[in-house]
Fold these 3 entries.
Entry 1:
Amino acid sequence: MTIRDIMKYIESEFYVINDTPCEVCGGEYAAEDVNIDIIDGVPYDVCDCICSSCGHEKTFEFCAPFIAEDGLKKVKNILN
Ligand SMILES: [Zn+2]
């Protein structure tokens, strides 16, 4: 997995977030913060989002098993 592949993966997550309407008002979510969390030994890309219309908060979690193979550091370097 190259940095480019990882970036593509993260980009696709943002598409999912953009395609998900706010469950309260139907508005658009904007990503506030992206973190890598290990849940039950599996790395997850955890994205805190907030509705740009009503401020409703939602956390998106994306399973990211490749991060374990290729090292958390790489991804953290991209995100920071
Ligand atoms: Zn909303």
Entry 2:
Amino acid sequence: MSEISFPGIGRDILRKDVFMRIAIELSRLGTCPRKAVGAILVRDGRCIAWGYNGAPAGLPHCEDNNHGWVLQPEYREQYEDHDAIEIENTMLSEYGCRNATHAEANALAFAARQGISTDGTTLFVTVAPCDVCSKLLIAAGIRRVYYEEEYRDPAGIELLKLAGIGTVKQEFHGDT
Ligand SMILES: [Zn+2]
Ligand SMILES: [Zn+2]
């Protein structure tokens, strides 16, 4: 075999490993401390757009607004400080971060801004998409989704499957 690959791993698997590694590297730029996620969109073996999760440009970061769950001042004044914080934290653990834009959504938004077609592309993402992102991915014509980790809510993956989009929990070969 003349192709360069490391022992026991074919070219196709090597390529997927590299793309997932790029997504993992990108996740390091994520700004929500609850979960760092990276995503890249691939067409014909090239990355055409990428994203990571974080606060929308120019808006407060997750650590500054408790992931979007800081109570409105007029509501907060009805409570002692520690009660208000408890309410916020309960909402956060129940519903998760509502401040950050997810990595996949950021990748799609970048493509939209730049006029890059996402139709028929493949997504590599470090955590399986949520239901909201899955709807965006379906609408954007994504054909396949490789993910490294399950998301706490499987609804997104179920939606993708229903829409006929290939979903693969990728076994990452890491440093081999
Ligand atoms: Zn957050
Ligand atoms: Zn999402």
Entry 3:
Amino acid sequence: MPEEPSVAYVPDRVFTALDDTAREGLAVWVEGSRIRAVVPSAELPAGVAVERLPGTTVMPGLIDAHVHLNLPGTGGRFEPLVEDDATLAVAAAANARAALVSGVTTVRDCGSRGVSPFAARRAIELGWSEGATIWAAGAALTVPKGHCWPFGGEVDGVDGCRAGVRAQKAAGADFIKVIGSGGGTDNTVSWLAAFPTEQLRVIVDEAHGLGLKVTVHCTCAEAMRRAAAAGADQVEHATFYTEGNGFRIEMDAIEAMAKAGVVVTSTLAISALQAERMTTSDDPAQRDTWRRMVDNWLEGGRLMHEAGIVHVAGTDAGWRYCDFQEMAREVACLRQIGLGAGESLRAATSTSARVMAMDATGALEAGRYADLIAVEGDPLADVSALGRVRLVVHRGRPAPVAVAG
Ligand SMILES: [Zn+2]
């Protein structure tokens, strides 16, 4: 057996994401696709190739816990879905590559159509396409003509819910995504819950019976209450819309999620991106609405963090004006709602891996995949370092790096 290629990365400091500190003097020793060891660089055996990375911190590659690989993040919404699934698979692979070159080594796809996310996932696994590892839900389950229906996941009634979970599992789903309220799809209502609790419970029970975790899109308090009551593992967005796009935080919904141990995916940066990147052809009144939304969403996030809810970082890339390279911004939002420096980096790495049941990535320790990045500076001292990625290694192989600030 030929030996696997081996290299030790020696930066100024290493953040393993197993705790909240970065340490100097360490080397991350990679062999093949895995981490062989994280050891004091002085203890590396003679003959191991060393790549010095002065001025940088080496840390796990980022995990974006909420993306839509079919969509471009250029302001349109479902427009690409006029194309067939094969074309959408190519789009998905291209978006996974855009994520990778910005330092995101894993993306969790929260809704795409047909075989497209699974085909892109397979092409990347085979090495035919270079991109972030894909963890995919397939089509998000939704009520007839509910939010995200263009992805093809409409289900109706208890039997339909059960069949929907089985269909996504059979298609290759790594987890189940459910649309628990309306959202940004035309003719759906963000402040109204979609599935009754009984149906959510059927989805959760069926999914758990198949070994799949369940996350629920929730943009109103009632949807969060139902998700918590149904035993869902996770909630996406967790925003508090009220009638007419108003906003009112309802603490009992936060407490219900905290008590049930529901994890929240943040998606906090997208409202600011929307306000900044809207073009003149967009309605200017909408821009003010989005600006107001920024503060509302941050306030909700702060209260959830205070209540003890665990956050993971997700951008909603692909949707609206959020592209696939915004994780630095999302983690900065997590700092704003009160997560500590190490806690916010773990929300984008090891905590996310644990919540997604992807323990083979997300931290730097012997045996895990060599998914890692080197960023300029110290991201614990200055979170903007995440935007200055100097090296990306995915499954042991160096990838190109996006030109960044
Ligand atoms: Zn989404």
